[in-house]
Structure formats: C-alpha cells, structure tokens
User: Fold this.
Amino acid sequence: VALLASSKSAPDDGEKICDASAGPDACPETGSEAAGRLDVWRDRWAHNQTGWHKTEVHHVLREHLPQLLSFTPHPPRIFVPLCGKTTDMAFLAGIEYVGEVLGLDGVRTALATFAEEHPALG
Assistant:
C-alpha cells in the first residue's frame, strides 16, 4: 500500500504530495491557507475522535469487488482518496489480482496509524 499525504486540499492550488511512509518528517507542514482547512481533521485525530472508522471492511466493497475486478484485463491500481486508516486498503492489498493500492489523506497521523497497524503493507 502506498500512502501519500497532501498538505493542500485542491490540486490546482499547487498541491504538494509526499510519501508519508518515509517517516514523520517526510511531509512538513506548509502553513498555507489550504492546509488550514485540514485543522479540524488534524484536531480530531489528535484527540482520538475518529468514531467514523470501522473495524470491518465495508460490506458493499466486499460484495461488489469481484464484479468490478472482472472488467479489467490487468491487475488494477486502486486509488482510495481521503483514506484515513481504513481497513479497506489492507483488504484490497491482500487480493492477489489487485496490482497496487494508493491511499491519499491530508492528515499524516491517519496514514501513520494505518502504517503502524499494517506494517507488512508498507
């Protein structure tokens, strides 16, 4: 699983993407106005207010993935925007036919937590 952190909220305002799996200093804060939009989410992560995360793979993904994979002749690269630490990424990475899973989030703590919980995928 490739984990990327974005410090900006829109690609057209000079988005900086870095590899969060390279360590805590790989993605420095930018202080830009766009980065400030993420403060609410950073605060929620800092105070462990992440009740939206599920411990199970989303049932719709589990149910429909075989059909979705049947449409591609090559192992797909799957992009998971605003991934947080979703278990869906680990599930997708464990499927032999999936080529790569790419998760993107604006909160490094979320990505670091995923990497800690799934060290074999980093």
Q: What stands out?
A: The mean pLDDT is 81. The radius of gyration is 15 Å. The longest strand covers residues 100-105.
